[in-house]
Amino acid sequence: MTTATERPAISPQTQRQTEISAMTQDTLHHQNDPVAWSTLHEALVRPGTWKNAWDLGLTPWDHAASTPALRSLLASPEYPELTKGKILVPGCGGGYDVHLFAQSPGCEYALGLDLSPVAMQKAEKLRDEKSISPQKAQFLAGDFFVHPFGTKFDVVYDHTFLCALQPTLRKDWGKRMAEIIAPGGHLITYMYPLSDHEGGPPFALSVEVYDSLLSTEFEKLFMEDVLETFESRTRQEYGEKLAVWKRK
Prior knowledge:
- By secondary structure, this protein is an alpha/beta fold.
- It has 2 domains: 12-56, no CATH class; 68-247, Rossmann fold, CATH 3.40.50.
- It has helices spanning 12-28, 34-44, 49-56, 68-75, 96-102, 117-129, 170-180, 207-214, and strands spanning 85-90, 107-114, 137-141, 153-159, 181-194, 218-225, 239-247.
- A 7-stranded mixed sheet has the order 3-2-1-4-5-7-6, with helices on both faces.
- Strand 1 (85-90), helix 5 and strand 2 (107-114) form a beta-alpha-beta unit.
- Helix 1 (12-28) packs antiparallel against helix 2.
- The longest helix is centred in the N-terminal third of the chain and has 17 residues, at 12-28.
């Protein structure tokens, strides 16, 4: 029993989630405020915070749709192989890209992977609402770097996954991509943010960073500037490109 002057003990996790909630709610109301975004970014680099953000429903990076650039690429007759076979989307969040791939011709199945079980539940709910087969659009909560997939993929799509990782993990990202993509398979990289800003996430990337991580095991087939992007990103000064790589 507590008296009027006593308060129940609050666990460190609950306290941290409360702090994140307060900072992120403020950020959502000040999306053009670089100080507010900086505060959110500082919170997001702490262990477990990506999962906490999904648990709290505080995900200002979630655009609830696939990028126009990916939609255009998959609809193009130039690279029909990008929708065929087994497809993986690491860090898939709400699963919008997985849904898109699963509904594309030639897709055996598309697998979305994310650290957050809450994100995976959201993705599955949206899948069911869209009447997409659970066999075609699958979701799994797990760690990209250690999960035993048990197969190699024909296509992997990275959209704002690399930029969310600490830069110390970038070499591991490149090695893992080479491990899980079948020879002749393809990696699609949505290169964002192309910038020289400090800190993150999102951490700054460059074409040279991608080349250094992938050129040994992959051939770059295609790269172009992204001209149509999400409205919220048009207020930023970050560059965006889309590239297709083929596993050697």
